[in-house]
Every structure is written in structure tokens, then in C-alpha cells.
Amino acid sequence: MTFVKKLYLASSNPDKLKEFLAIANVAASELELALLPGFSELPSFPEDAPTFAENAVGKALHASAITEEAVCADDSGLVVPALGGEPGVHSARYAGEKATGPDNIAKLLAKLQGKDGSGRWAYFVCVLAVARKGRAIAVIANRVDGEILDSPRGSGGFGYDPIFYFPPLHKTFAEISGEAKDLHSHRGKAFRRLLDVLPGML
């Protein structure tokens, strides 16, 4: 049995590595994390599947072709049940392929105009997939529930964080510290769970 001791992230984004390293440190994990060498030269993977899990697994398998080590890919987004699950897998490009965070927020708030109570309930979801040598070896999902505010609050975070209100802390995700977000967020919870199970995976 070969245990996973090193994990590459299917990304060339140092901020993503920093975020995952912070979560791993809190979890006291001995797993070695790094950005996947050569990832930026890989042909881009079309994240056009209808579910977060399919996109995450596809991306991990795609990236695993250039390394012998385990590779982790993620797909995440915001789900608003009152809008039929929008923006969902289209969260990053909800207002168009070149949309900015404020563009996506503006579109979402316009669609939620006139809705209150349960109509503004929403959740962030994150799916992490790990592949090695063309085979998926782990798929982990988690979520965090909250509400969509009428207008943005806070200057931290990114994406929909300024309008995602987290009731247990009485703040939006853009108003809480990075440490608090790592503790409560969909990505933080999913990655800590992955760190629990990954050491024993083939």
C-alpha cells in the first residue's frame, strides 16, 4: 500500500496554495502541499459539466496526466434554491465569461429583488477530487449555509462573500477574518475532511 504523502493542487494560483496551507496547518497535517508543476502549460479543462463533482473529478483526472503524485482539484460555487440552484456551477461566470465579482453580485441581487425570508437562503458548496495516475481516489463535498443580503458588506474575501451573511457569526464572509473563514467555510470543511481520509488512500 502506498500512502499519499504529497499532494499537488491543480492550480498555478499561489493564493489558492496559501489558503490550503493555512487550513492544513490548523489541522496539523503533515501532508506536503504544492502547486502542480507545469499546470499552466496544460490545455485548459472545460468545466462544463452540470455538477460540481463532475467538474472537480474531470479537472483532477486531466491534471493527473502530468505527474506520478496525487493531484487535487476543486469546484465550488454558490447555490440559491429559490432561483432553481443558480448560480451553481456557473458562479464564477454568472454575469458572463469575463464577469467580475461585482458583476456577478449585481446580477444575483437583481434576480433576488422582491424576495425575502427563505427566498434568500443560500449555501456555498465545495467539492474536492483527488486523482493519481488517471484514477480518482477521493471525492469530498461540504457546504456552509447562509443568507443573501440586499447589498454588499465588508471588504475581505472575494466573489459572493460580501453578500453572503453567515448567521452564527452575524457577519458576511467579507467581514470575518481569514482564520474564521477557513474554519467555517465550505472549502475549509471539505479540505479538513480530505486531510482526515487521504493518508490512508491508495
Q: How would the blueprint of this fold be written?
A:
Layout: E1 6-9, H1 14-26, E2 32-35, H2 52-63, E3 70-79, H3 101-111, E4 121-132, E5 135-148, E6 164-166, E7 171-172, H4 178-184, H5 186-197
Parallel strand pairs: 1-2, 1-3
Antiparallel strand pairs: 3-4, 4-5, 5-6, 6-7
Account of the 3D structure:
The protein is α/β, with parallel strands linked by helices and 202 residues long. The chain has a single domain, classed as Alpha-Beta Complex (Maf protein). It is 27% helix and 24% strand. It contains five helices and seven strands; from the N terminus they run βαβαβαββββαα. The protein has a seven-stranded mixed sheet with strand order 2-1-3-4-5-6-7. A hairpin with a 4-residue loop joins strand 6 and strand 7. Helix 4 packs across helix 5. The mean pLDDT is 92.
Number of helices: 5
pLDDT averaged residue by residue: 92
Structural class from helices and strands?
Answer: alpha/beta
- As a percent range, the share of helical residues equals 25-40%
Q: What is the H-and-E element order?
A: EHEHEHEEEEHH
Q: N-to-C terminal Cα separation, in Å?
A: 6 Å
Report the radius of gyration as a whole number of Å: 17 Å
Task: List how many beta strands DSSP finds.
Answer: 7
User: Into which percentage range does the β-strand content fall?
Assistant: 15-25%
Uncertain runs? none
